[in-house]
Design brief:
By secondary structure, this protein is mainly α. 67% of the residues lie in helices and 0% in strands.
């Protein structure tokens, strides 16, 4: 079947800069204005990742938005309600620290951070561990570092090594964590996945969003 391609579509194809690693076909490079417009449209239609992106623009005063912390938090809450883990993390830390127009509420903040983890943001284990350490909750801190490392987060593994060298955990505990980390990261390694990480990064996805998208394939 012959396809009719408009001149505008040809112009877009001429701007192509990368190839999709999934279907091995030519990708289309959009202008910054076109990307912004698409993200805003998807956000208004309830796409969680895009709602969170718009929230970050409002908070930082970017992409034509005036900086507005209160309105940004409303959008972060919408994204969190839609299941976006990064939005849950933002709200959680805002509660823990009493920032972004929210009153300090440690318990509520921890609840949001734990929700973020359940939604797949394993990096939060690292920050939870740091908060535990600051509050003198050493065992909880070690547990969260271990959980993050077991899920394949390198910064948590680095902290477990530091804890071992400092005498806070045994050699056996560190070796168990290391093996679990190697198992988790080994499952994520392949040439196709590396190509996909580059491709999705060019499309503006964070590293965690990329891993989540790959996990759904």
């Amino acid at each position: 079947m012959r396809m009719n391609i408009t001149e505008r579509e040809l112009q877009k194809i001429s701007r192509a800069t990368w190839t999709c690693p999934f279907c091995r076909t030519l990708g289309i490079s959009l202008t910054d204005s076109e990307k912004t417009s698409r993200i805003v449209k998807r956000a208004r239609n309830g796409m969680a990742n895009d709602v969170r992106t718009v929230a970050s623009w409002m908070y930082n005063g970017r992409k034509g938005y005036e900086q507005d912390t209160v309105e940004a938090m409303k959008w972060y809450r919408r994204a969190a309600d839609l299941g976006n883990p990064q939005a849950c993390a933002v709200i959680g830390f805002a509660h823990v620290r009493g920032e972004m127009s929210l009153e300090q509420n440690y318990e509520q903040g921890i609840n949001f951070l734990q929700k973020s983890i359940k939604l797949g943001d394993v990096q939060i284990f690292f920050w939870l561990a740091l908060e535990n350490w600051k509050r003198g909750e050493i065992e909880d801190s070690i547990l969260n570092f271990r959980k993050g490392a077991v899920c394949g987060y390198d910064k948590c593994l680095e902290q477990m090594l530091t804890l071992f060298k400092s005498g806070f955990i045994t050699k056996e505990e560190y070796e168990f964590t290391l093996r679990a980390y190697q198992t988790a990261t080994g499952e994520m390694e392949s040439k196709d996945r590396e190509d996909a990480v580059v491709f999705l990064g060019q499309r503006g996805h964070t590293h965690l969003e990329t891993l989540q998208l790959l996990a759904d394939l």
